[in-house]
Amino acid sequence: MIFSTLEHILTHISFSIVSIVITIHLITLLVDEIVRLYDSSEKGMIATFFCITGLLVTRWIYSGHFPLSDLYESLIFLSWSFSIIHIVPYLKKNKNHLSAITTPSVIFTQGFATSGLLTEMHQSAILVPALQSEWLIMHVSMMVLGYAALLCGSLLSVAFLVITFRKDIKMFFKSNHLLNESFSFGEIQYINKRSNVLRNTSCFSARNYYRSQLIQQLDHWSYRVISLGFIFLTIGILSGAVWANEAWGSYWNWDPKETWAFITWAIFAIYLHTRTNKNLQGANSAIMASIGFLIIWICYFGVNLLGIGLHSYGSFTLTSN
Amino acid sequence: MDTLILNLTTQTLKPSQAHLIKSPLFPRNSQIYRLCWKRSLSYAVTCKLKTSQENSKKKNLPNKIVVSEGAPSPSENSGTTENGGVPTKSQRNAAGGLGYLKRLPKRVLSVLSNLPLAIGEMFTISGLMALGTFIDQGEAPDFYFQKYPEDNPVLGFFTWRWVLTLGFDHMYSSPVFLGMLVLLAASLIACTYTTQIPLVKVARRWSFLHSAEAIRKQEFSDTLPRASVQDLGVVLMGAGYEFPLCVFVAATGSFRGSVTVPQGLNFIVGDVLGPSGFLSTPSEAFNTEVHVNRFYMDYYDSGEVRQFHTDLSLLDLNGKEVMRKTISVNDPLRYCGITIYQTDWSFSALQILKDDEGPFNLAMAPLKINGDKKLYGTFLPVGNADSPNIKGMYVSFITNYIISICVRNFPNWIVTVSSLSLSLSLSLSFSFWNYWRWN
To answer: Where is the Cytochrome c assembly protein domain (chain A) (predicted)?
Structure first.
């Protein structure tokens, strides 16, 4: 009883803190950067992190097994991973744009987990026989961490695409205006339109400079976060294969969930390969990562909705009554 | 051949600035040459030519000319392109067929190690795998005739003909899929040969600091306590290039199968296992007979299933027991490369006594399955078989410890269950890797 109350309180605290943090973010968007507010939002994220950690620990103690046995718990773990991805660069005093991605992600996953859709699952269930293995912690935590990092990275890429694309539109309107200005300036704008801007452009106007800097940073961070997530995903898939060999007698069974995890892996492998090629860098690789975003959701939810294959214990039925 | 005249104004170059020079000679077509400033003070001029109609018949060649320091004269520049182009053409003509054969491996290598090709292969493989999850795998042809009928094709063109000709009913061992995997593996090997090995060769020329002292002297050095080489192995596995090969071997050289056995009966391993690839060859272990001694479940206090157990005996050809083990989920039986694990269970038959009459044997059928909560029903015809209103009896089970028997139309019957037989789905797999490890 005391555990479920504690859990309830922690869920609510974390959810409300994240909402406050988002509000602060919106305020800082409207009003120019206020250092104090920014700092407090960071502190808020740390508080959220501790709340979710507390939630997971409570659940662990209460149920006696690692809290990753069903969809609700994995969603909570996903939001925990988002917050840890947020916190690690912050602790290293690296101001970055991740917070704009992670905070809404946390609120969405928390919101979905605690929403009415999954109320049946809130009671901590008993560990089904299929999950009673030491590999559960390794495999599932790595997979969820990988998903979280890849989702963050691909969202950054989506942001990258949005900003580049918006820039193009604005450029189109601007170009008429710019005809009056110096000839070379127009030329530069033309070059900027081409996808390969990131590397070689440099500052010509302050506005343009900041924008290209932002784009470059977004690209850089999405690359870093995706490579991290890719490593997690690889470890997760490999440990899953080892577990499959122990439980089912072969490393690979072409189970739908496995197959989709492999598709995700392949898509992000393609992303990492496009990054190495100068011609495909930039917008192309960002499009790749955005495709990856959809694929992750299919892998994480879509397969479970069908509830087929050997991973069927992760399935859930949407009951909204 | 169009001559290329570049107007270089190097004296205005500043570090970290890109300059654009527009050639005044071609005012109609927008031609833009970008100049990159490099540390080595050589200027890379990238230009794309798109001049006139007749030139566009040829390929639009993106030329990259590296110009050494100082502004070269336009005539020099055009000279280098001409001199570079002419000899190679004459060589090509002179070399003939033999030279072509000699160059063939190199050409194949360069095609295979092409990055867009590899990306395309990965895309195709992903697409095929995704398709494999949408099409039900390993069904009889009749299933596909019904699901993808010719008169009502999916998406307007996809019929069973596609599925069966391309082997999409067993996607992961179909020639198309395996061919793509082989192609990807070839690309990886070609890339390793053309790119990675030269990189390693270059890297070997670097000088390394061999003593730990020398490394610690460096500014950027750091020490990791309790780190081991295995950690590095995990990190390096991030590349995961061996993965497609492993999948390939696993897909081609293994057997799988599943069987539903009532408790207390036997089956022979070889009857159940079917090859899942063209490299699969049976082994002598396939003559082993499996006897299901008992199947039972453990429960939590709350009534949920904690664990499923099956007591299995393996018998050789003479009927001698070679192995006996109680398997549970996550703890399968392994014998000579064969792995036997439980996948499902169900009720197969029910024996009842009605008012001390009987026993009646009733076959049971699943009504609706939702996870581990199983509901089974059976039908007991009561009364005269010829009369039109046959009374029925339905029996339902939630799990095997909650047995509710509800006899429709005869609420005052006392029915006792005298025995209940369970049947169990076992899946078997055989892989050569496990077989080698066993021996």
So the answer is: 68-311
Q: How far apart are CA A311 and CA A247, in angstroms?
A: 12
Judged on CB neighbours under 10 Å (0-12, 13-18, 19+), B243 is buried
With a threshold of 0.85, tell me whether the complex ipTM lies above it: no
Top pLDDT among B250 and B156 is at B156
Q: What is the pTM of this model?
A: 0.69
> Which of B112-121, B236-245, B312-321 is least confident?
B236-245
How crowded is residue B188: how many other Cβ atoms within 10 Å of its Cβ? Answer: 20
Span B45-81, pLDDT tens digits: 433 443 444 444 444 444 444 444 444 444 444 433 4
Query: Helices A98-114 and A135-178, interaxial angle, to 10°?
Result: 130
Distances (CA, A) of A304 to A126, A250, B289, B343: 19, 22, 36, 18
Q: How much of chain A exceeds pLDDT 90, in percent?
A: 17
Cβ atoms of residues A70 and A97 within 8 Å: no
Per-residue pLDDT band at A296 (split at 50, 70, 90): very high
> Of chain B residues 185-214, which have a CB less than 8 A from chain A?
none
CA distances from A268 to B119, B126, B270, B365 (A): 11, 11, 41, 45
**Span B90-133, pLDDT tens digits:** 444 555 667 777 788 888 888 888 888 888 999 999 999 988 88
Tell me which residue of B352, B361, B362, B363 sits closest to B417, measured CA to CA: B352
Which of B17, B34, B126 is facing A263, going by the closest CB pair? B126
Residue contact B429–A184, C-beta within 8 A: no
Q: Calculate how close chain B gets to A278, using CA atoms only, in Å.
A: 11
In whole angstroms, what is the distance from residue A66 CA to residue A80 CA?
14
Assess B246–A contact: CB distance below 8 Å, yes or no.
Answer: yes
* DSSP for B179-224, written as a single string: HHHHHHHHHHHHHIIIIIHHHHHHHHTS----SHHHHHHSTT----
Give the distance from CA A306 to its chain's centroid: 23
pLDDT over threshold 80, residue B430: no
User: Can you say whether the dihedral through the CA atoms of B111, B117, B119, B124 is positive or negative?
Assistant: negative
Enumerate the domain spans of chain A. Answer: 1-126, 128-315+317-321
A262 touches chain B (CB under 8 A): yes
Q: A-chain residues within 8 Å CB-CB of B302?
A: 126
**Which residues are CB-neighbours of B93 under 8 A, at least 6 positions away?**
none
For residue B337, what pLDDT band results from cuts at 50, 70 and 90? Answer: confident
CA dist A238 to A22, A147, B31, B125, Å?
A: 37, 15, 51, 19
pLDDT at B174 over 80: yes
Q: Tell me the C-alpha distance between B262 and B348, whole Å.
A: 7
Judged by a CB distance cut-off of 8 A, whether residue A261 touches chain B is no
Quick one: which of B117, B126, B133, B246 has its CA closest to B177?
Answer: B126
Contacts of A140 in chain B (CB under 8 A): none
- The secondary structure element, H or E, covering residue A89 is helix A71-91
Quote the CA–CA distance of A294 and A155 in Å, as a whole number: 10
